[in-house]
């Protein structure tokens, strides 16, 4: 797949929005992650790659709060969030999509996306009565306006009233992205957003991700197996293998690293003269 037309032009802010510091994760005797550290700058599109079972989704789960790491800490926007529950992390600006779709299949597309804005509701125990008398209708209209903006952006107007479970796989992936975007996150975690898609659907999704980063200003961490996409749209890439960090850097440099080529691409001797170039590998 070639998506060279969507290479990001924006330069990420070097100030870290997210810092992952010496994270280890154990399940009994199994080590899913071992002493992994990295940072993601504001406005950056950062990809995590590695073989199946390398710990990529486990890392996203530590960032989003689904898992609590055994050691280390997660710092988001200057605050230690290591022990915060997932709903609290969503409330402070961490959005998430999943490798396996997590939509409410019996609900409409519109209602699924509206779920992504529940934490933005302003009413509470003390102001509830005044809220319902004075602000409920206005707030509802504002939420609807934002949701419609997301629907237009992702070109899903034609299915906005459809039941989510009746849609094609590619459209359901787009609806899940819409729900995460509706959260208005500072950081969005994308777990294999293009898995199972055909070439046209992948190209569309790549464009949406780049536009979220460049036009909407969202910082993005993406897990993706399609090396063409990773090479074309990422600012930086980190490689995990058996729960350990192998290397981190710009995409071309990472894919040229001999340890990466052996661990991730299966090359026994990466120094052979007829070794394929990174461009050829991403074709």
Automatic annotation (TrEMBL):
This is Branched-chain amino acid transport system ATP-binding protein. Keywords: ATP-binding, Nucleotide-binding, Transport. InterPro entries: AAA+_ATPase (IPR003593), ABC_AA/LPS_Transport (IPR051120), ABC_transporter-like_ATP-bd (IPR003439), BCA_ABC_TP_C (IPR032823), P-loop_NTPase (IPR027417). The keyword ATP-binding applies. The keyword Translocase does not apply. GO terms for molecular function: ATP binding. Pfam families: ABC_tran (PF00005), BCA_ABC_TP_C (PF12399). Transmembrane segments: none annotated. It comes from Xanthobacter agilis. Residues 18-267 form the ABC transporter domain.
